Amino acid sequence: xxxxxxxxxxxxxxxxxxxxxxxxxxxxxxxxxxxxxxxxxxxxxxxxxxxxxxxxxxxxxxxxxxxxxxxxxxxxxxxxxxxxxxxxxxxxxxxxxxxxxxxxxxxxxxxxxxxxxxxx
Length: 120
Fold this sequence. Notes:
Structural class: mainly beta
Oligomer: single chain
Helix content: under 10%
Number of strands: 11
Radius of gyration: 14 Å
Distance between the termini: 40 Å
Order of helices and strands: EEEEEEEEEEE
Shape: elongated
């Protein structure tokens, strides 16, 4: 079984910064991709940033230039540095990972979610 543990959320004023972390644990052969999604009240979950095992990175247009995703392969951990935060960034942020594990094979895993609140 694979689990994702998220940390780093909280309350911050507009213009401030936060850093989210997500560590994967369990029987992991390899991590294909990891990333972050978010869901604001009354809205659908949306992709924020993704990083693949070959280093390819994608960002939502709304966070480009403000958020940076990075990974530590040795620790099976992904980070999301969020700068210049805006009230519209307020949401529950979910870590997501596509992994190869045993005995299941391919597995998509979600974290429990962590709240980020940006006050104006």
